[in-house]
Amino acid sequence: MRTKLSQFEYTLNEKLIAGFPAKERDESKLMVLHRDTGEIEHREFKDILDYFDDQDTFIFNNTKVFPARLNGKKEKTGANIEVFLLRELNADMKLWDVLVDPARKIRVGNKLHFFDPDGNELLVAEVVDNTTSRGRTIRFFFTGDEEEFRDTLKILGKTPIPKYIQNIRPAKKQTDPLDEERYQTIYAKEMGAVAAPTAGLHFSRELMKKMEIKGINLTELTLHIGLGTFRSIDVEDLSKHKMDAEYFRINQETADIVNKTKDAKKKVCAVGTTSMRSIESAVSATGHLKAAEGWTNLFVYPPFDFNIANCMITNFHLPKSSLMIMVSAFGGTELIAKAYEEAMKKKYRFFSYGDAMLIL
User: Fold this and answer.
1) CATH code at 69-156
2) Model confidence, pTM
3) Quick one: which H or E segment has residue 61?
4) Does 206 have pLDDT greater than 90?
């Protein structure tokens, strides 16, 4: 029997969508799901320590969100154009895949100019190709080195807070001074994502220090999240859906720690769907994690045999999204549906800045 997209539909009250982060990272709500019994507990995120012991292992995605949203002006007309950086194609040539808005005004050959807050022109780019209805490939004209170019993007760019968050915020609070810090995990270091690995946003420095003191292993991998993760699924038969590829890297040290934990039959906890997607893209013939680097377009949907992690942390996701579908594959479709109903009754906060779920 084929898994259908319509199995992952639910209706959410918009008031439950989190427009701002919790006051403290580790004080968001935590729902705990026990797969073996179906029990559901309601805790605070910092209580997560109660469920893990010495030599258990957490796997974090250390990708860092870069300031991907630029505001430019079209040559000659001066029309305002938003350019959303998706992926660098060639560092030497400064070629990037981007989304442009409004797309109807942007054609191959157009030049775009980018200015700092004081009105100084810092970058010029030329559109060299069309990729999708809103997608373009652009080439930046820049004579400095890669570090100088990245610094320039930081000056011009804005943190790419999801548009739905801006839409539900009051008109005077479309942006929040805390966004630059809070829409980033505290352990982010590898620049390259256009969206945050949101399950990791709940971890504070204090909590992670307590985890280390308790003897819990904190390991890292990298998966640079692209907009493809959030692209809507438009086929009812999930076996026909194709995920966009995302770059990931798992080093040998992480693989060794995870495999030692797995062999000792301790808990291996994937922090977020991106960590889970990465490790399931790097499984050896013996069912262990292997060091790997490359691109993954793995789409995890029920039924799926998970090889590495035996627990995971995740947020509450959009209905019929690839993220919710993966979580359902791990937690069980019926249990996750029940958990989402419970979350709505208990007024949990949903999506990127929302509350968390621990599945054991």
Assistant:
1) 2.40.10.240
2) 0.91
3) strand 57-61
4) yes
